[in-house]
């Protein structure tokens, strides 16, 4: 599945390494120490020394502690630290990204979003990092799947409003929203929430109908629903199954309902995979997967439509021509083998 959808290249925030300087109005340490507000002066001095030593992790905590305790302290110091914190946070965030430290990246990202919830740049970096290094890693890693879902929903709201990540080349709103919905569907599928996964996947396919992966996943999801429905139908006595298959007047309603449910999912599966084959025909990079899909698709289609030997190819060709509606095909008796 990883081969079907190329993860977007991770974007790095364009936050240049900030070279900390003393405020424009330099505060001399010896003068600060003589200030009546000795506690405030000591707190600022502690930050100043950590900053000068380039211990930015420590300096960050000391700066936040200073602002929290002295929000109305020395005006120059307060103004300077309010600008310094987001710049150094960006520097530390990029360091965490480079080091592959997902936990620290997420911590700093969430901290930035707390004060700027519409900062798509932070969201986009975290989305692409988690997506490439965890969600679609080999093997997949769901350690931060819940955070990914949170970031994706937040990013979709911002992208839908028309905002674009800084530095994102060839950014396409529809495609971006599609893969975010697809990924949410992937997470729901791994959590065994098939119906919710289908809801997200259908949204992805509607936003970017030229992406084969969405239709491959759609088929996989309906395959699961078909298997469950078929098993339910096959749990009834064989005589009841036969009566439902043959459409006899005395067929039990619950058995007929189970048959209809199984056939509904089989037809949805056929439609998804016919679209997948149509989109990937002639593209060698899809050959191994498409070959397997074509085999399973042909078996299921022939089973559902035994009187229409060329119906599947017509369906695929219809989708290759760009039509979103399947051609009219004679439907055989709705049956599920016992």
Short description:
The protein is an all-alpha fold.
Topology:
Blueprint: H1 29-33, H2 38-52, H3 56-69, H4 75-99, H5 102-115, H6 120-135, H7 145-160, H8 173-190, H9 194-207, H10 212-234, H11 238-245, H12 253-280, H13 287-304, H14 311-320
Helix pairs in contact: 2-3, 3-4, 4-5, 5-6, 6-7, 7-8, 8-9, 9-10, 10-12, 12-13, 12-14
List its traits:
338 residues, mainly alpha, elongated, disordered N terminus
Task: Give me the strand/helix succession.
Answer: HHHHHHHHHHHHHH
Give the % helix: 55-70%
How many helices? The count is 14
* Count of extended strands: 0
Shape: elongated
From the alpha carbons, calculate the radius of gyration and give it in angstroms: 29 Å
Q: In angstroms, what separates the terminal alpha carbons?
A: 32 Å
